[in-house]
Amino acid sequence: MVLVATVRALLRLRNAETEARKAAEQWQSAFDALHEGLALVGSDCRMVRWNNAFAEICSAKAQVEEGENAAAFLERLVGTQEPLRQNGSHYEAEFAIAKRTVQLSVNPVHTRSAEKILILNDITDRKLAEYALRTAEKLAATGKLANAIAHEINNPLEALTNLIYLAGSSPSLESTREFLSSANRELERIARITKQTLAFHRDSQTAAPIDVGELVGEVVAMLERSAATRRIHLMCMREPSVIIRGFAGQLLQVFSNLIRNATEAAPPNTDVVVRVRSIHRSGRKGARVTIHDCGPGIPESIRENLFDPFFTTKGVKGSGLGLWVSRTLVMRHHGTIRFRTSERAGSAGTTFDVFLPVDKLAP
Ligand code: ADP
Ligand code: MG
Q1: Which of 66, 221, 340, 350 is deepest in the core (most CB within 10 A)?
Q2: What is the pTM of this model?
Q3: Which superfamily does CATH assign the domain made up of 128-357 to?
């Protein structure tokens, strides 16, 4: 009787062991099937276990060994132990491993334990796609700008040709003088346009002080004429000298995107109102720029997609990159971009609101 009981107990134990082994194997397969690299670091800071993806991502730079010190391993892999120093809190940063860009996150297993999970994510393709999009949008913007400039310069040039002809064939000195002084005004207009264009492309690597009001005024002056051809009046109200540190070329792109969107949405014979003010928001001093149009408003169903790359309701005429790029550039200035919109008949319209703080720009 005792023997039977013992045998049964042993059998149960063996079954339990088989089950446990099966579960462990299942876990390991699931672990290895993951696309992300995962590794467990013990409370003694040793590498305990990792999945295939982890070894694979590291392989170009460092071979991981069981029981190896995790800090030393990270030092070999990404050149710093910093990620493991973050005690008890989440850490995330991007590193280059050989030719790939990898996002490394470190999470504590429990809030109270010293064990950690390392997660490696190969984000090279995403980064490349982002870069390609940025370049594409820049090229598209440059093309549009070149077209607009050619247009803007062509009119005064034509006028200039006529005025010089008239001055040359005029019988009286007085009228010749008048023609020449008109010609001079047209020349000034051309000079102003080229100066603005040069400023648009001057985008240095280091942040410089920018008068936001002046910059917005420049964009408005540049887009005024093309808005007028759609019978839309661009109104600009600005406070002088709201100075922030930033990149002029990038901010010109942001405001020209937003103002262009507003003029595209506004019905003919209405105003698009651009305002620049100096304000405090959440304890930060900065410049607030609002762009208001009396267009149809933005339907609820698409509001959350507005800032997605390639999201457009303008068919082949839209790139769907304007807002996405604008948000990226505003975030680079530690600012915020948001909008209010209404579809209600009589008060329909959209206001985009950009806040650029005076300080807190990363070097
Ligand atoms: P695109 O202008 O090339 O379509 P954007 O990223 O600039 O791309 O804008 C995305 C979409 O957001 C637009 O297609 C439009 O539907 C919507 N949108 C942007 N600004 C406004 C606005 N002021 N009023 C109404 N809709 C807008
Ligand atoms: Mg647009």
Answers
A1: 350
A2: 0.54
A3: Histidine kinase-like ATPase, C-terminal domain (3.30.565.10)
